[in-house]
Specification:
With 290 residues, the protein is α/β, with parallel strands linked by helices. Helix content is 24%, strand content 9%. It is extended.
Length: 290
């Protein structure tokens, strides 16, 4: 180690300390400091902080000499091989081709059957006196990993003996008829993956939204919830939840005699066609100069 150089206390010290830029109480600390002359040349990183670069083709003792780790001969040593290359043979995707497609509009519904719900009611894990929503189904572990919604199916319908008020994303016709035959009710309503996450966390109301039918005149957002439940915006979803056959929560918006479609109307209920008045055209023709 080189010798430590003490802080000079001669003329340099007097010229620096006499400056008004240094507070007087700092002078004893500055006068007692000392530092090695080679501190900058001895700086180094911690051991193992980085790996040394592999030097290839530098002799057999390096472990990566001669063939540099590529092996002997062949296409993998001489150059790169594209993915799926079969040595010149016709690739399988060319021989057989690509079949099918991915439906980007499909939804991933978690099925739940009536027999499972009745079993959960018998075990006391679901309360039939209250509406059963995605929140209750998720908390009781009746369904798991819900992505786009829950669909109610009718397997084991002969085992159902308890009237239920259930709110799900979709329901089959057989499940609806069985529950209503026992005096219960089924309501299908629109959910998004984001809203399902918030409902399971308890920050969003699983039933009421702005477009829901108001019974007591209250608004669509109940107190105690941070987020508001969304409503459908696409025509396909709106028409599904307007259909009374699906027990959609927007079926109250359908007028009597009309269907759930937003485009097709019952004949005779639309606006009358505009008729051409022949007399006015004749008068306009007589008044023409040219």
């Amino acid at each position: 180690m080189p010798p430590k150089l003490p802080f000079t206390t001669g003329v340099l010290t007097s010229s620096i300390f006499s400056s008004s830029l240094i507070a007087p109480f700092l002078l004893p600390c500055l006068q007692s400091q000392s530092r090695a002359a080679s501190i900058l040349s001895s700086l180094s990183d911690n051991s193992g902080a980085y790996n040394r670069k592999i030097r290839r083709g530098r002799g057999p003792s390096s472990g990566k000499g001669k063939t540099s780790g590529r092996g002997h001969k062949g296409q993998k040593q001489h150059g790169k091989v594209p993915r799926g290359f079969n040595g010149g043979q016709t690739p399988l995707e060319i021989v057989h081709g690509t079949r099918g497609f991915e439906n980007v509009f499909s939804v991933d519904m978690i099925p739940v059957n009536l027999e499972r719900i009745q079993s959960w009611v018998d075990q006391g894990r679901l309360d039939p006196s209250k509406p059963i929503t995605i929140k209750e189904l998720g908390d009781s572990r009746c369904v798991a990993n819900v992505k786009d919604g829950v669909k109610l199916l009718a397997r084991g319908s002969e085992q159902l003996r308890t009237p239920l008020n259930i709110v799900v994303s979709r329901a089959s016709a057989a499940a609806i008829s069985k529950i209503e035959a026992l005096g219960g009710s089924v309501t299908t309503r629109y959910y998004t993956p984001f809203s399902i996450q918030k409902i399971l966390r308890g920050t969003m109301d699983p039933i009421t939204s702005i477009r829901s039918e108001s019974v007591d005149g209250s608004s669509g957002r109940k107190p105690g919830f941070i987020h508001r439940l969304p409503d459908p915006t696409s025509r396909k979803d709106i028409e599904y939840y307007r259909d009374p056959a699906h027990r959609g929560y927007l079926s109250y918006t359908v007028e009597e005699g009309q269907g759930p479609s937003l485009f097709f109307k019952k004949p005779g209920t639309g606006k009358p066609a505009r008729r051409n008045i022949v007399g006015s055209k004749a008068v306009a023709g007589e008044n023409r100069i040219w």
